[in-house]
Amino acid sequence: MLAAAVRLPGAASLPLAPGEAAALPDLPARTLPLLAGILVVPWLAAALALRAGAAVGLAAGLLVALSPFAVHSSRVDDGTALAFLAATLAVAGLAGGWPDGALKRLRRGVVITALLGTAAYFAPAHGSAALPLLVGDVGIGVLGFALLAWQVTGPPPNGRLAALLATTAAASVAWAASRDGPGALVSGALAVACAATVLVAAAFVLGRLAHASADGRATLGLVAIALLPGLPSLIGEHQDGGRFPLPALALALADQRHPGEPLFATLPELVARELAVPARPLAEAIGPAATARTAAARRHEWIILLIDRGRPADGVALPPDLEASLELVAVAAPRRFDLRRHEARLYRRLVRE
User: Fold this and answer.
1) Which helix (H) or strand (E) holds 284?
2) Buried b vs exposed e over 253-288: b needs ≥16 C-beta within 10 Å?
3) Would you give the DSSP letter of residue 323?
4) What confidence tens digit (pLDDT) does each residue in 148-188 have?
5) Ranges of each domain in the chain
6) What is the pTM (predicted TM-score) of this model?
7) CA separation (Å) from 336 to 136, 236, 339?
C-alpha cells in the first residue's frame, strides 16, 4: 500500500521524461513500470524475510518503497523499473544469509562497486557533482548503512576481484560521459545495479540493527536516519515528476510563433514530442551554421533551453553570452525541496536580413 501511495498519484498527467518511450503520457502507457515498481516491494521483502529474517525483509520493503530512485523509475516508461525489479531480486538471491556464507568476500566487493559505480554513473551523466545526487537519488542515510555492510562482511575481497570491480567502476565514468549510444545503456544499467545493491545492503544492516535493539525508540531513530535525507527528493517527485515543464511553454509558443519559424532546443526529440512541433538540435542555432541563416526570410528563431540544476540537460556547455543575446519569452521552473531544479526557458531571436 505504501509503495502504491507514493507512486500512483499524478502518474496519469505527468509529461514525458527524457528517455521515455514515444507513447502518449497517459496511465496505460505507464502501467507496466508502475506495476513493477509496486510489486518489487513485497517480492523483495518476502525474499529477504525468508533468507535473513522478518526484520531484514521489512527494512528492505520500507527502503525500496520510499527510495526516490525507485519511485521515479516507476513513473517513467523507459524500462528502468523492470530492470530495477530484476536487479533487486537478483541481488537478494546472491545475498543469501548475508553476512554469513561462502560468498561474503564477493558481497563485500559488490558493495564497494555499488558505491563507486553509483558515483561514476551520476557525475558524468548529469554534468554535476556526484555527492548532491547521491544524497537525493539514493539517500545519504542509505549509503551510510551500506557502508556499515562493508564492516560486517569479513576479510578484504580477493585482490584480483577488487581490481576487476574497480576497473569496471572506472570504465563506467568514460561510458557515462555521453547520454547517447551504448554509453547511455551501459551507464543506465550500472546505475540500476548499483542502486539495487546499495538498498539491499542497507536493508541487511538496518534490519539486523533493529532486530538487535530492544528499544523501540532506537529502532525508529535508525529508520529516520535511513529515510529522512531522501524525503526532499521524494516530495520533489510529486512537485514536478522529475520532468521539464514543457507544457507550460506551449501556450506562449503557439500564440507568438509564426508558421515556418524554426525552433531549436535542448533534447529536441523530447521537445518535439511534448509540444507537437518540429524541433532541431540547439547546436544548429549556436554553431557556424547560425551565421548562414541570418539572410533567411524569417522574422524570428525560437530556442528552448532545458536546464537541470543550472546546467543544460544534455550536458553540452552553452556559449557564455548566448542567453544575453536572446529575448526571454517565458520561463517554467517548478519549485522543489531538494537540489534538483528542472527549468524550461523559451527564447526568441530576431533574424536580421
Assistant:
1) helix 283-286
2) beeebeeeebbbbbbbebbebbbebebebbeebbee
3) G
4) 765 554 333 333 433 444 444 444 444 444 444 445 566 66
5) 2-240, 247-350
6) 0.76
7) 12, 5, 8
